Amino acid sequence: MSEPRGRTDLLKPSFEPHAPAQPLGHSLLHGPPRAQHIVVVLGVGPGLGLDVARIFAAQGYAVAILSRTKARLDAWAVEVSLASRVLRVAPARPLSLAFGCDVLDSAAIIQAVKDIQAAWPERKIGTCVYNASVRKRGPFLEQRPEQVRDGVQGSIFAGFAFLQSVIGAMVQHNNGAGGSVLVTGATSSTRGREGFAGFAASKSGLRAICQSVAREFGPQNIHVAHIIVDGVIESQTMLDRFDFPKGSRFPDGAALLSPEMAKTWLFLAQQRPNAWTFEMDLRPAKEHF
Ligand SMILES: NC(=O)c1ccc[n+]([C@@H]2O[C@H](COP(=O)([O-])OP(=O)(O)OC[C@H]3O[C@@H](n4cnc5c(N)ncnc54)[C@H](OP(=O)(O)O)[C@@H]3O)[C@@H](O)[C@H]2O)c1
């Protein structure tokens, strides 16, 4: 039988046994060992970003949370640190720290990644989540260049700066142990629609960056995955936008719930290099797609 083309460099015999497969959810995160591992979540608001940070903290990982509102993040960092103690980990330093960072400023992203490394010098950046986005939607003929520019900065330039910084750190410091980079997309990542021209351009650009980087760094043990969020995430902002009465919620299956969504980020970061997902989409059951 002839070998598949392009795989002759890969398909060489090895006589080492494979590491045993763990039951679902029981694997450590891909990358440095837990005691040396930093999880970075950029774009932490009260919804998805915070629930992603919480789910990693609950596994005993050190978690850096980043967005513009430092005071709010500081309070969340205390709560996220407490989630880590559920596993009775005795940390020498706090297990969650907050960093102010505006993705409209690429230099601030690069500096924040350096600050994170300086804050936990005994650890290495192992899992990174890019969750921020700058959504300026509106009728095409009314879109102003600066709105489009902010969207492109918030996804493409900021995504570039973040991925370059964290992947650069993984290559330099992780001694081949690699890590995971998980990027939050939206319906607009693969489908433009009326009112979303600028946002779709920026989100699809971010997805294209992820595809390229995943191919370039997979062989270096760095797992890049893109998650398409195809639906509305339930939040007070969204309930208010749809004029829902106070205290009400969306019916089950009509909107995404971030604590449920966060399990997907954990699953992706726990994947071993013998079975990696590049892309997943998430939507509520009743979503039209
Ligand atoms: N919400 C939805 O229904 C929905 C639907 C599809 C896809 N998504 C995607 O899901 C991700 C999370 O969205 P989310 O709405 O649920 O938000 P979230 O996870 O609750 O928080 C995102 C946070 O990002 C921060 N952020 C916004 N602009 C920023 C900037 N310029 N620099 C730094 N941080 C910034 C904000 O915090 P600060 O104000 O403190 O900076 C915001 O609270 C996004 O990538 C979005 O495209 C959301």
Task: Please tell me about this protein's structure.
- This protein is α/β, with parallel strands linked by helices and 289 residues long.
- It has a single domain, classed as NAD(P)-binding Rossmann-like Domain (Rossmann fold, 3-Layer(aba) Sandwich).
- 38% of the residues lie in helices and 15% in strands.
- It is built from seven helices and seven strands, in the order βαβαβαβαβαβααβ.
- The protein has a seven-stranded parallel sheet with strand order 3-2-1-4-5-6-7, with helices on both faces.
- β1 (37-42), α1 (48-57) and β2 (62-67) form a beta-alpha-beta unit.
- α1 (48-57) runs parallel beside α2 (70-85), α1 (48-57) crosses α7 and α4 (145-173) runs parallel beside α5.
- It is globular and about 60 Å long.
- It starts with 36 loop residues before the first strand and ends in a 7-residue tail after the last strand.
- The chain binds NADP nicotinamide-adenine-dinucleotide phosphate.
- NADP nicotinamide-adenine-dinucleotide phosphate binds at residues 43-49, 67-69, 101-104, 131-134, 154, 184, 186, 229, 232-233, 238.
- InterPro entries: NAD(P)-bd_dom_sf, SDR_fam.
- It comes from Tilletiopsis washingtonensis.
- This is NAD(P)-binding protein.
CATH topology name, in short, is Rossmann fold
Arithmetic mean pLDDT: 94
Distance between the termini: 42 Å
* Shape call: globular
Strand order of the largest sheet: 3-2-1-4-5-6-7
Give the names of the bound compounds: NADP nicotinamide-adenine-dinucleotide phosphate
Biggest sheet: strands, sense, closure?
A: 7 strands, parallel
Number of domains: 1
Helix count, DSSP H or I runs of 4 or more residues: 7
CATH class: Alpha Beta
- Second-tier CATH architecture: 3-Layer(aba) Sandwich
- Please count the beta strands (DSSP E, at least 2 residues each): 7
Fraction in beta strands: 15-25%
Helical fraction equals: 25-40%
InterPro entries: NAD(P)-bd_dom_sf, SDR_fam
Protein name: NAD(P)-binding protein
Pfam families: adh_short
Organism: Tilletiopsis washingtonensis
